[in-house]
Amino acid sequence: LCYRKGKTPRRPALKKTNNVEKDPVGVYCRIRPLGAEDEECCVEMISSSTIQLHAPDGLKANRNGEYKETQYSFTKVFGINTGQMELFEDVARPLVEDLIQCKNGLLFTYGVTGSGKTYTMTGSPGEGGLLPRSLDMLFNSIGPFQAKRFVFKPDDKNGIDIQSQVDALLERQKRDSQQSVPKTPSSRQKADLEFADMITPEESRKSKNIDEDCSYSVFVSYVEIYNNYIYDLLEDAQFDSVRPKPPQSRILREDQNHNMYVAGCTEVEVKSTEEAFEVFWKGQKKRRIANTQLNRESSRSHSVFTVKLAQAPLDADGDYILQDKNQVNVSQLCLVDLAGSERTSRTRAEGSRLREAGNINQSLMTLRTCMEILRENQMCGTNKMVPYRDSKVTHLFKNYFDGEGKVKMIVCVNPKADDYEETLVMRFAEMTQEVEVARPVDRPIYHLAAGRRHRNQKLLCFLPALPPCELVDPTDDQTLPRLIEVLEQRHRIRQMMTEQVTHTGMVKFMLQQFDSQMSSKDTFVHDQQSKLNEKEKVILNQKTEIERLEKKSKTLEYKIDILQKTTEMYEQDKRSLQQELEGQEQMLQKELSERRRMEQRMQGVVTDTKLKWEKECERRVNAKQLEMQNKLWVKDEKLKQLKAIVTENSSGGSFPPEPPKKPERPSRERDHTMPQKRSASPTALPVSDFILKNHHNHSDHYCTSTPSTSSPYPSVASCISEWEQKFPIDSGSQSRLHGTPQNQNRTPAPGYSTNSVDRRRGQRWAPDTEAPTNDLDRNTVPPVRPTHRRSRSAGGEKWVDHKPASNLELDTVMQPIIPNAIKVSTPNEKALSKCHKYVLRHQELASDGEIETKLIKGDVFKTRGGGQAVQFTDIETLKQECPTAPRYNISLKYPGLIMLLRCSVSLQMYFGVLFMINKIEDSI
Ligand code: ADP
Ligand code: MG
């Protein structure tokens, strides 16, 4: 006996790369028709993939009509008129095709109790569900290519063993002998539902992609998961109806390929649809009995019907199955009828039933959680642990989601109003279709020529038929040689054909190699293409980046340009400013040197001038000293002369005798004695009070100590006395040459001079015309040039003639006549500002009864503050007898003499000074 172990297809370790192709979980929605008693329909199919839920009227009323109408989308929606066949075509048929192509599939129905899960999965008589239709299609496809019973043999580790046909035959014979009463369909009870009741022969489907060079075998298993326990529904244990034993629960295990399986689960090899359906029905019956006996709620359990397909290639001859377990491929399709998804509160469960219900709900909750986490992991790239182990259902189907396969879910919906609240769970279903499951890879290609089975069958036709080889007669010597001949013939033909086949196989093998090479090349090209696409994306990104950078660089260049231009402008400015600066510096230097030269020159000039002035000062001092000495000398000389005159007079001179009545005589005498007293000390004269302003001009004398104010407040008399005290020599007699501009023509007329009562003192005379004829004077007075005594400014100056209102109007010709003068009674600034000279007519009553008019003269200056100042420079005195006193007429006898005396002294002094000055000037 030769046992070779087959096992479940080794699944490639799921690479977590994006290259693995994935398909989303197909979620279909089936709306069952309303029951006879139901009236309100809450579900509307608005498109082939969308349904809309309408809140039932009762619910609307409860919530004030504010109920949102919700829409859900699915892979496909099947309306109430959808038949079982149509559903099968769309949903289950591809899964059966996959099963035959060695790909796993999982199909489950989901929904509340009564929504049509069982109807969809199992169906009713005449309306076979997905399960009988799938079995039918499978057997229709593999029917003629099925292996003999027991060639494929399930091990207890979810694998399939393979054994030779002879061993299988022997095992069959053994089993047959063990079963005392062989079960035949004819022996079945009529009460059981038969497959023939389910589908009509017209509805049979068959796969066209069946590999005929393989041998197939189908195994079915049926388990129920109730309260998170797994029960085998195909277990052979006899059910004791008297003392029902709780069925033995099964555990889940993982095989060497990490597939989950129910350990020790019965797997029945079935050879036809009828047989398979019979097995299913058996399990179904058992489930029903158990539920009734154990007081279970059948809607609370999940039932899992698994169709396992084992296939192995035929050998090169196409005669036998290849005895290589590694070549055995096993695929399975799980058809799951889930428990009702309604909430616990809806069921009137109590006690242990409530617990059970909770668990049922728990397993569905786990399914929901697993789907959510899977979806999150796939969509967000996270790696959260999916809690498959939390429930048996999810744990059992872990591989479908983790590994590869096709998963489909049919959401059954009952549109009746009662179920409205439950239909909200469709959000889960909608979400589930976002979960992706790896697409199963195509089955490996066997390196054997295809069509082996067909060829083998044809070969049998070519071979000569065997002659009858029954040996009846021992002496028959023809039968055996004939048989030998035929056999030899067959052997030859077979060898020949084998050679051909081998050759074809070689070619085929080469072709296959080429094919695999091509496919690897294809994958390589595909890889390269995807790489290229990635690179292109990168290039595109870089291009946009480059464009962005280019734009940026352009703007920067533009900015640089602007900055450069600005810099150039600034530099130009800087250069021009520097040039300007240099020019100015040069100018400054030039100016500096000029100034230095100037300073040097000025210093020279200053020293020169200084020296000159020093010399000049020295000279002037010397001159002044000389002048003073001269004055002294003149004074002495005059005194001598006077003494001589006085002595002459007293000794009977020619001079008329002095009138005795004259009261002023003593005063005059006193006046004359003053200079005499002073002559003893001529140095007492304040030389510094006289400044020779300009030696080219005639000698103007400025009195620096004269009060410079034009204020009328101090009394004129006091001022005059002060003046006279300061200049005792000239007081009362001094007559200035530059004084009142008296016109020569204005000199008194001869008639007036004799008759007039006026007496003038200090009146100026031109010596050449009016000097009193005095021989003595002529002899003693040094000769002075008369032209020097004439005022140059006479007539050219403007005067302010201040004549106070209190002044008496004197009717005399001896009045100062000032032409071109502004006459004022009180001095005002306006008048002063227009004039250079000022004269005040001051009248006083003298002690001798005469009216004395003093002409106080001064120069007008502009003060710094913008005002006017008068600097008094001269006093001229005019005296007249008061016209009201007739006794003064007597004194007219000698006025000329007195005048002469006084004048001669002053004139001589004056002329002496002038003489001296002229002399000095000449010497210079
Ligand atoms: P579940 O298994 O979900 O509890 P069932 O499949 O037992 O519900 O269905 C309950 C009842 O509704 C059954 O009598 C079934 O015949 C009927 N039914 C369900 N779906 C359909 C359908 N699409 N067309 C006709 N009858 C249906
Ligand atoms: Mg059901």
From TrEMBL:
Q: Where is the Kinesin motor domain?
A: 24-435
Q: Where is composition skewed (Basic and acidic residues) in this entry?
A: 659-674
Compartmental location: Cytoplasm, Cytoskeleton, Spindle; Midbody, Midbody ring; Nucleus
Q: Which GO terms describe its cellular component?
A: Flemming body; kinesin complex; microtubule; nucleus; spindle
Chain segments annotated as coiled-coil in the UniProt record: 532-601
Recall the GO molecular function terms of this protein's record. ATP binding; ATP hydrolysis activity; microtubule binding; microtubule motor activity
Q: List, as start-end ranges, the regions of compositional bias called Polar residues.
A: 178-188, 731-756
Q: Does the keyword Cell division apply?
A: yes
Cite the entry's keywords alphabetically: ATP-binding, Cell cycle, Cell division, Coiled coil, Cytoplasm, Cytoskeleton, Isopeptide bond, Microtubule, Mitosis, Motor protein, Nucleotide-binding, Nucleus, Phosphoprotein, Ubl conjugation
**What is the protein's major site of localization?**
cytoplasm
Residues binding ATP are G111, V112, T113, G114, S115, G116, K117, T118
Superkingdom of origin organism: Eukaryota
Q: Where is the signal peptide?
A: none
Name the InterPro entries on file: Kif23_Arf-bd (IPR032384), Kif23_Arf-bd_sf (IPR038105), Kinesin-like_fam (IPR027640), Kinesin_motor_CS (IPR019821), Kinesin_motor_dom (IPR001752), Kinesin_motor_dom_sf (IPR036961), P-loop_NTPase (IPR027417)
Which BP terms does GO give this entry? cell division; microtubule-based movement; mitotic spindle midzone assembly
Which region ranges are annotated with the description Disordered? Answer: 172-193, 647-684, 730-800
The UniProt record lists the keyword Nucleotide-binding? yes
In the record, the note on similarity to other proteins reads: Belongs to the TRAFAC class myosin-kinesin ATPase superfamily. Kinesin family.
What's the subunit arrangement here? Heterotetramer of two molecules each of RACGAP1 and KIF23. Found in the centralspindlin complex. Interacts with RACGAP1; the interaction is direct. Interacts with ECT2 and PRC1. Interacts with ANXA11 during cytokinesis. Interacts with BIRC6/bruce and USP8/UBPY. Interacts with ARF6, forming heterodimers and heterotetramers.
Give a short account of what the protein does.
Component of the centralspindlin complex that serves as a microtubule-dependent and Rho-mediated signaling required for the myosin contractile ring formation during the cell cycle cytokinesis. Essential for cytokinesis in Rho-mediated signaling. Required for the localization of ECT2 to the central spindle. Plus-end-directed motor enzyme that moves antiparallel microtubules in vitro.
Q: What is this protein called?
A: Kinesin-like protein
Gene behind the chain: KIF23
